């Protein structure tokens, strides 16, 4: 499986890597770092099953959409939008509802609806392809939990839910599906997502790109997608604890810089 990292803040060693992580967290929220770690765990498992005919794209940036799509897997049979997660606990996925098990052993709506989040990622890719008059064989969005300590009770959810013990079987299913993509369309899908761009101007009516800002000019179904992604983006805001972590990292960075300056001055 070929993996292409499209993140603006790819991991690097040393001080540069710390700065990249800090920039990414400030841009997308602390959950972005968790998503990157979940991606790496999932890539290791999928890569052991899927061959080089499959391409996995990380952090796909769609024009005018502030938050990247975590993973897009393109196989000869279909294109899948994947939302990897490392949260732990007991959950229930039913239709559009995402619930977690509380202390009183009763399910209640979770603070972040991961089903809706995954569905919105899927609709964003669909809307982007529609803007370019391109169609691809796509299934439902997939939410994959990499932690074996996550248990999900699924009751006909809007997106596909895969638990840690089912990841390899999920990959095997993909590997034996009958190819549908033509070679030309496969390359076109990869090109559109690795080099995202707005559609060329034409005299034909245009479909606006999915945007996080609500706009009455955006037609259905993209209006619903935009509204939902806005809510997802708001959920990415730092909590008080996350701001404290960011603050401590900033202080640590300043101390390191001061130490380096002092060392250079003393050497001279």
Break the fold down into its secondary structure elements and pairings:
Layout lengths: L1 E4 L8 H15 L2 H17 L7 E6 L8 E6 L4 E7 L3 E6 L2 E5 L5 E3 L4 H18 L10 E4 L4 E6 L4 E3 L4 H9 L7 H12 L27 H14 L4 H28 L1
Parallel strand pairs: 1-2, 4-8, 5-9, 8-10
Antiparallel strand pairs: 2-3, 3-4, 5-6, 6-7
Outline the structure in words.
It contains seven helices and ten strands. It starts with a strand and ends with a helix. The protein has helices at residues 14-28, 31-47, 114-131, 167-175, 183-194, 222-235, 240-267, and strands at 2-5, 55-60, 69-74, 79-85, 89-94, 97-101, 107-109, 142-145, 150-155, 160-162. Strands 1-2-3-4-8-10 form a six-stranded mixed β-sheet. The protein has two domains: 2-237, no CATH class; 239-268.
- What is the rounded distance between the termini? 50 Å
How many separate domains? 2
Number of H- or I-type helical stretches? 7
Percent helix range: 40-55%
Give the low-pLDDT segments. Answer: 211-223, 232-237
Strand residue content: 15-25%
Count of β-strands: 10
> Order of strands side by side in the largest beta sheet?
1-2-3-4-8-10
What class do helices, strands and sheet pairing give? Answer: alpha/beta
Q: Could you write a compact summary of the structure shown?
A:
The protein is an alpha/beta fold. It folds into two domains: 2-237, no CATH class; 239-268.
Defining traits:
268 residues; 4-stranded mixed sheet; 42% helix; globular
